[in-house]
Amino acid sequence: MTKKIEDYEWFCPQPFMNLYKNVFGSIKPCCVTKQEAEWRYSSIDEYFSSDRLNNLRQEMLTTPGEEVARTCSVCIEQEKHSSESHRKTYLGYLEYSKPEIKSEIEEYVETEMEEPLIKTMEWLAPSNYCNLKCHMCGSGNSSSIARENQEIGQPNFPILGNKSLYKDDDVAEDDINEFEDKVLDNLVELKLTGGETLAIKYNYDLLETTVNNFNSEEMDLRITTNGTLTPKFNGKDIFDYIPKFRSTLINVSIEGWADRNCYIRYPSKWNDIMNNVRKFAEMDKVKILFVSTVNSLSVGYLWEVAAGCEEFIKEYPDVFYPFATGSLVWGSWEKYTVTAIPLDLRDFYVEKYYDNPNLRYVKDYQKLINFLTDMPFDEKKHKSMMNDVKARDKYRGTCLLDLWPEWKPYYD
C-alpha cells in the first residue's frame, strides 16, 4: 500500500515537486530555504541530481536530520510557536486544491525518482529591480535599497559590486529556454516574484512564451507584487496576460495598513496600491491575498491589516482571501526580527491583539502572540536594527516615532 504524505514524520512537498530559481541563479526547493550559496547549480538537471537535494529528500522520507534542520530552519522556527508554516501551507495546497498531485507525489517518492516531477515553479527573474526600499528587504532583491545602502554606507550583496541595479539579459533568455525545454509542459502553477515582479521585463518574456507555446489555460498563475505600479512591456501589461491562465492569485505584499505600510515599504503610495488592487478585483478568475512578513516593525500592528482587509472581503466576498501573516523574518543576517524587540514593547503589542479581537484571525493572532512572548530578546540584533532605522530615517527625512511612538526610549 502506498504510504500517505501525512504518515511521514517531517514531509514537505517542495523538494519533490517544486522548482525555485532566484535572482542570482540559485536553484533550491522553496523561497524560504536558507544557505543561498550552497544551492548554486548550472542547470535544472544538475540540481535534481545533486547530493544536497537527494540527502534532503531521503531525510524527509526516513528520519529528519541535519539536512532538514539546515534547509528548513524557517519552518522549524515557525512550528515551534504555532501550527502554521510554509511547509503546512504547501501541504494544505495539495490536500485541498490539488489532491491528484498529492497522490502522484505519494507514488513518485516510492520510485527511484530518476526523472524530476516539476508541478510548480517560482522564478525570481535575474534582476533586482524594485521601486521600493523596504526596511526588511535586502540589496539582492531591491535595486532601490541597494542604491540607498551605497548612500548611507551600508554593505550590499557582494555580487552587485559597485552597482545597485543587477540585470542579465543572457541569463534570462537561458532560463526561459530551459524552462521551455524542461518545465512548462507539465506545470500546474507558475509563480512570479521579485524585486518588483510587475516592473521586470523578463517576467513578461516568460509569460509570453508560456501563453504562446503551452497550455496556459490549464495553469494557475501566482504573482507577488507590492501593488504600486502596472507598467507595459512591448505594449502589454499584466492585465493582458491574466485572462490567458486558468486562474490568477495576486499576493499583494504589505507590512501595515496605510501609513505604516508606506513607512516600512518606503516610498509606497497607499492610494496607488488601493487603486491597483481594485483593478485586479474587477477581473475574472482572479483571487487576491494581502500578505505580510512578520518583522519587528509589522508584528505589533498586523491586527490593523486584518481589520482593513475585512472591508475588501465584504465588498468582494468571492475575490479576497483573509489576510495572511506570511514569512517570518528569520536568519543570522536579518536585522528586523522579532528578537530585536525589547520585552516591554512586546507586552504592549500583545495587549493590542487582546484589545482588538477578530474571530476570523484567532489562530493568526495567537501565532503572533506566541512569537512575541516566546522568542528571546537579542541585544545585538536590537542595536543593529535601531542603527539601521535611524540611518534610513535621516536619509529619507522620515521618523519611526511618528507612527511607532512606543519606540522612543530606544530611539533617542
Report on the structure:
This protein has 412 residues and is α/β, with parallel strands linked by helices. The protein is 43% helix and 10% strand. The protein contains 18 helices and eight strands. Helix 6 crosses helix 7 (99-108).
Strand and helix layout:
Layout lengths: L13 H4 E4 L5 E2 L15 H5 L2 H11 L4 H6 L1 H9 L4 H12 L1 H10 L11 E5 L18 H10 L16 H14 L6 E5 L7 H13 L6 E6 L12 H4 L5 E7 L5 H6 L5 H12 L4 E9 L7 H14 L8 E5 L14 H13 L6 H13 L4 H18 L11 H4 L1
Q: Main traits of this protein?
A:
412 residues, alpha/beta, TIM Barrel, 2 domains, 8-stranded mixed beta sheet, 10% strand, globular
Q: Could you write a compact summary of the structure shown?
A:
With 412 residues, this protein is an alpha/beta fold.
Order of helices and strands: HEEHHHHHHEHHEHEHEHHEHEHHHH
Taking all Cα atoms into account, the compactness measure Rg is 21 Å
- What is the typical, i.e. mean, pLDDT? 96
The CATH architecture assignment of the largest domain turns out to be: Alpha-Beta Barrel
Query: What is the helix content?
Result: 40-55%
Could you tell me how far the N terminus lies from the C terminus, measured between alpha carbons in angstroms? 65 Å
As a percent range, the share of strand residues is 5-15%
